[in-house]
Each structure stands twice: as structure tokens, then as C-alpha cells.
Amino acid sequence: MNEFDKVRIYGDEILRRKAEDISDFGGELNDLTEHMVEILFAYNGIGLAAPQVGLSSRVVVIDQSLGEEVDDIITLVNPAIEIFPGECTIEEGCLSVPGIWEEVVRPERIVCRYHDLEGNPRELEANGMLARIIQHEVDHLEGILFVDRLSSVKRQLLARRLRELQEPEE
Ligand code: CO
């Protein structure tokens, strides 16, 4: 197991970095996304951003079937989100913040503009759970974690558990 085979956990500084745009579409990007999909499945996740596997690049993989089907992965390269008015509350978790699930308020409907693996510009309109996952993953590229989006009261209630993630006992 090398350093890229493990999901980075809360407290790892790479999760707080703004990730870099991808400008080379080719073999390396394909290798990275293939690896990310492997990790996503290994951890039974539905979304993963490159910083979570230790690479500060603007790449996200999402299982559009939300765990229902074997192969319905969408890869978003250099994604940017435009939001529509209207919010909703959905419970979120994160492979980088294991064991914590909290309701988060976010815009309900979005358009995501991104590049596919060949570098073609694409657009995806989404609402509900898919819109939620895209927003969560794109946050990762900005160094933002879902717990940052909780109220300060909720964050205070979680402070101890977050500290334990950050400083695991030997
Ligand atoms: Co996450």
C-alpha cells in the first residue's frame, strides 16, 4: 500500500489546499482517475476528489448511480458550479471525515461546467442528491470540508471528534 492508496483524513493539510487546474489531458490523467475509481469502490464511497488521495488537482469522480450500479462513473475535470436559487437540507458524510454524518444546507439545483477526460468542455445540470455530491466534491478542490458548512453550534458539538480524527491516539 503506497501513500496514494489511502484516503487522506481530516487534519491532513492537503485537504485544505486549493487544488490546481488540469491542463494535460492524457495518460497521466487517465491513470489518476482510474486509481480514484478503484479507491472510491474500495471505500464504498459515491464521490471522491483528487486531494483525498493526496493529489492537489482539480479532478472529481462520482458514482452517478449512488452505489446502485457497477459502472456509472462520471469524471469532472476542472469543474465549476453555477447555483440556482433555492436550498435543501441533506445529510452528508465524507471518506476524509469518517464516522461523522450531519445535515448540511446547500443550493438544491446547479449547473456544473467541466472538462471530460479528453478535454472537451461539458455541462451537467443536476438537482437533489447528484447536485449535492457535486457541490461536496468541488468544495474539496477549494480546501473546504462539509463540516465547515455546519453552524458554529454544531461544529462545537463535533469539536472533540474532529480533534480525535486530527490527532489519532497511537
Ligand atoms: Co468528501
Output the keywords.
170 residues, alpha+beta, 5-stranded antiparallel β-sheet, 26% helix, 26% strand, globular, binds cobalt (II) ion
Fold and architecture overview:
This protein is of the alpha+beta class and 170 residues long. Helices cover 26% and strands 26% of the residues. It is built from three helices and seven strands; from the N terminus they run H-E-E-E-E-E-E-E-H-H. Strands 1-2-3-6-7 form a five-stranded antiparallel beta sheet. A two-stranded antiparallel sheet has the order 4-5. The structure holds cobalt (II) ion (CO). Cobalt (II) ion is lined by residues 94-96, 136, 140.
Spatial strand order of the main sheet = 1-2-3-6-7
Instruction: Identify low-pLDDT runs.
Output: none
Strand content: 25-35%
Question: What's the alpha carbon Rg, rounded to whole Å?
Answer: 16 Å
What is the H/E order? HEEEEEEEHH
Write down how many β-strands occur, each being a DSSP E stretch of 2 or more residues: 7
User: What separation lies between the terminal Cα atoms?
Assistant: 20 Å
Helix/strand/pairing category: alpha+beta
What's the pLDDT, averaged over the residues? 93
Q: Percent of residues in helical segments? A: 25-40%
Q: Give the number of helices.
A: 3
Bound molecules: cobalt (II) ion
Largest sheet: 5 strands, antiparallel
Shape: globular
